[in-house]
Amino acid sequence: MPAATVDELIDALIDREGGYVANPADRGGATCFGITEAVARAHGYAGPMVDLPRDEAAAIYRRLYWLRPGYDAIAERAPRIAAELFDTGANMGPAAATTFLQRSLTALNRNGRDYPDLTPDGRAGPRTLAALDAFLALRGAPGETVLLRALEALRGERYLRLAERRPANEVFLYGWLANRIGSP
């Protein structure tokens, strides 16, 4: 995936997240451009969250939510899958997003006939990439669409579960479903 396209994904994500938000129902605390204060501090930002520069937020997204989890390698194979993983990872954490991929690939491997089952460890390592390669070789472009639907189904189910388990999250559910499912 060209760098410009990654920049477009990051810009679109920042636009969806908006600027500074300090919703008392959000366990993550204050955010700016979707970056929590804890993440900003861990990556060297020391100023007030309301003043977090957009380009610094973009650099954090690129480093922490695109490069570190290996979505650049996935983008070489399946750009739409990488875009979905990036958006999910930015919202739920890259380990959750990658676990969704691993679970989906395992469920779609026809009981191990197409490629071995994956251990859902949240890391897009060589086995996950090999399974993705095998799946795409067998299923092609239509398979990428089916895999994308599986990822979105898992994501939607998790949003519903979050709202059911913690009623304070119900305030976020509509926005999560409206802006996160099918959005990247």
Integer tally of domains = 2
- First and last CA, distance: 14 Å
- pLDDT averaged over residues: 93
Q: The biggest beta sheet, please?
A: 3 strands, antiparallel
- SSE string, helices as H and strands as E: HEEEHHHHHHH
What Rg do the Cα atoms give?
A: 17 Å
Low-confidence stretches: none
User: Any idea what the shape is?
Assistant: globular
How are the strands of the biggest sheet laid out side by side? 1-2-3
Q: Strand fraction band?
A: under 5%
Total beta strand runs: 3
Structural class comes to: mainly alpha
SS element count, helices: 8
**Helical amount:** 55-70%
Key features of this structure:
184 residues; mainly alpha; Chitosanase, subunit A, domain 1; 8 helices
Structure commentary:
With 184 residues, the protein is mostly helical. It folds into two domains: 1-68, Chitosanase, subunit A, domain 1; 71-184, no CATH class. A three-stranded antiparallel sheet has the order 1-2-3. It is 66% helix and 3% strand. Helix 1 packs across helix 3 (54-67). The chain is built from eight helices and three strands, in the order αβββααααααα.
